[in-house]
Structure to design on (245 residues):
């Protein structure tokens, strides 16, 4: 297990916070983790994500379902690079000039940085309102905070990210029309770079000052500021929305 950076500590949830309105961080105290049946023989085991710990936990008691919760980092570029190239080609085929296509692709890259922040802060860290949503919160992101050095879950499995990407593609297509393809290509590339960055900063074998900074910044999110530092590839939007400190 990679040790947390100097100056960080395991987040402490005071008892008074647990009795107040629920938050993402206090949810494991309000709805204690346990093993529970989902459908038939399928059961899921949750753990306390407010206190990071070492290990590689089992989520599902069914080997096939468990396999789908893990992924190798090489899977991401293998899936999303051809997808981005295909969308870029669709834009060109639809009559968008090469210059305009590149401009929309760059716009997609920039758009992804904002999406990264919004998704992490408001989707991954959404506030559970009961046992069912607390279990959902664990499956979506809580398991990663409970066991932040479980290398099998440093990137998001395509079985989860692809349906979300497809849904966003159709929603944004109503806004951007035919330009959704080069824009989506940029978003796909941005997402891939983000998740690979997440893998690298967790792996910890970094030497350059930039990578060391990103690793330290993200480890603070895990070990001392779980409701701050939502940016992984950049702290820019944390600064904009005042979740930097």
């Amino acid at each position: 297990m990679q040790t947390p950076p100097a100056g960080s500590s395991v987040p402490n949830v005071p008892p008074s916070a647990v009795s107040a309105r629920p938050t993402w961080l206090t949810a494991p105290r309000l709805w204690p983790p346990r093993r529970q049946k989902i459908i038939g023989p399928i059961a899921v085991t949750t753990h306390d994500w407010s206190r990071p710990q070492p290990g590689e936990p089992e989520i599902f008691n069914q080997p096939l379902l468990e396999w789908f919760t893990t992924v190798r980092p090489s899977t991401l570029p293998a899936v999303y690079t051809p997808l981005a190239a295909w969308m870029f080609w669709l834009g060109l085929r639809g009559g968008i000039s090469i210059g305009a296509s590149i401009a929309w692709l760059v716009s997609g890259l920039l758009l992804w940085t904002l999406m990264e922040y919004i998704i992490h802060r408001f989707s991954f860290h959404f506030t559970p309102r009961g046992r069912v949503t607390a279990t959902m919160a664990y499956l979506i992101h809580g398991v990663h905070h409970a066991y932040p050095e479980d290398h099998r879950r440093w990137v998001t499995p395509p079985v989860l990210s692809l349906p979300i990407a497809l849904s966003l593609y159709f929603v944004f297509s109503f806004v951007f029309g035919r330009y959704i393809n080069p824009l989506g290509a940029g978003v796909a590339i941005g997402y891939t770079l983000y998740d690979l960055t997440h893998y690298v900063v967790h792996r910890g074998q970094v030497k350059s000052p930039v990578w060391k900074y990103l690793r330290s910044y993200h480890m603070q999110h895990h070990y001392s500021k779980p409701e701050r530092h939502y940016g992984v590839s950049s702290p820019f939007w944390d600064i904009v929305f005042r979740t930097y400190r």
Summary: The two ends are 26 Å apart (CA to CA).
